[in-house]
Amino acid sequence: MLQVPNTLEEIAETVGVSVGELVFGVLREGAIGGAVLALIAFLLSRFTREIYGRALLAIFLITAAGAYFGFAVLAGVSPLWILVELVGVIIFGVMALLGLRDSAWWLALGWALHPLWDVVLHLWGPGSSFASQPYAIACITFDWVVAAYIAIVYGFGLLGVASRRRDTAPS
C-alpha cells in the first residue's frame, strides 16, 4: 500500500523544501484560494443577484467544515470523534444558513472562526492524527481572506445592498 506523507516534515522532505518554506507556500496558496473565491462571489453578486454570491460563500463554509468530517470517516476514527466532526459541520452549517437567510455577518463570523477549528483541533490537537496538516494551515489564510472580503463588502455596502437578505429582496 502506498504511504502518503501527512506531516509537514514528511511533505517537506518529499518535495525537497524546508518546513518553513512549505508553511509559507501553503499559507500563500490559501490566501490566493480565498481571494479567488471572494472574487467569484463578488462577480456573482454584482452581475447576477447578490444572493448567488452569498450562497456560494455559504456552500463553501459548510464544505470547509465537512472536509474534516470526511477526513475522520476515511481514517476510521472512533464514533465519538466522528460525532465531534459532525457537530462542527452543524455549527458552521448553522452560521452559513443564517448568513444566507439573514445577515451576511453570520458568514463573516463563520469564516473568521473556522481557522480556530482548523488549528486547535486539527493542527495542534487530536485531529492531527487524521487531518491533513497542509489543509489546516491553508484554511487559516483562505478563511480569513474570505471573512475579510465579507466584512469589507457588506460593511461598506460595496454591492449596493445591505447585509440583510430581506433588505435586498426585489420590491
Gist of the model:
The chain is an all-alpha fold and 171 residues long. The protein has helices at 8-15, 19-47, 50-75, 79-101, 104-123, 133-155, 165-168.
What does it look like?
With 171 residues, the protein is an all-alpha fold. Helices cover 78% and strands 0% of the residues. Helix 2 packs parallel to helix 6 and helix 3 runs parallel beside helix 5. The N and C termini lie far apart (60 Å).
Which series of helices and strands comes N to C? HHHHHHH
Global mean pLDDT: 90
Structural class assignment: mainly alpha
End-to-end CA span: 60 Å
Helix content: over 70%
The total of helices stands at 7
Q: Main β-sheet: number of strands, strand sense, barrel status?
A: none
What fraction of the residues are assigned to beta strands by DSSP?
Answer: under 5%
- Radius of gyration using CA atoms only: 17 Å
What tags apply to this protein structure?
171 residues, mainly alpha
Topology:
Blueprint: H1 8-15, H2 19-47, H3 50-75, H4 79-101, H5 104-123, H6 133-155, H7 165-168
Helix pairs in contact: 1-2, 2-3, 2-6, 3-4, 3-5, 4-5, 5-6
